[in-house]
Amino acid sequence: MEVVNLKAIGIEKRVDSVGRIVIPKEIRRLLNIDFGDILEVLIDSGNIIVRKAAGTKCLITGERTGNMIKLADGKIVVSNEGAKILRAEIAKEIKIAKVKKNNGKEIKV
Questions:
Q1: CATH match for 1-53 among 3.30.70.260, 1.10.10.10, 3.30.565.10, 2.10.260.10
Q2: In angstroms, rounded to a whole number, what is the distance separating the alpha carbons of residues 55 and 100?
Q3: Closest C-alpha to 58, from 73, 40, 85, 76
Q4: Is 58 in contact with 77 (CB distance < 8 Å)?
Q5: Number of other residues whose CB lies within 10 A of the CB of residue 56
Q6: High-pLDDT (> 70) share of the chain, %
């Protein structure tokens, strides 16, 4: 793995009791790292490298694509295929709920 443009910026962080470090706000802004983003952790010649993962992972299919649909303020991220699956499952659950509400009689949805 080749890493280029490494730059010492003079910030040192202490690891907490459960192994976490905080990425300073200035660095998050500079690298466009937002709440909920997936970061990849790599080891190279004794160094830890943290970078944004190549695309967010779909909660339904597990695939990573550049064209993701973010729902619920970014808490739910799905691909187009994941959205189709989710839509079908939600429609099925709504139909079941309507049938139950109608005392088990089949209704058109």
A1: 2.10.260.10
A2: 40
A3: 76
A4: yes
A5: 20
A6: 86
d(CA 63, CA 78): 9
Q: How far apart are CA 32 and CA 28, in angstroms?
A: 6
Integer CA distances (angstroms), 85 to 7, 59, 64, 81, in order: 44, 11, 16, 6
Cα→Cα distances 31→18, 21, 67, Å: 25, 17, 20
Spatial CB neighbours of 77, under 8 Å, sequence gap ≥ 6: 36, 56, 57, 58, 59, 68, 69, 70, 71
pTM, 2 dp = 0.46
pLDDT at 24: 92
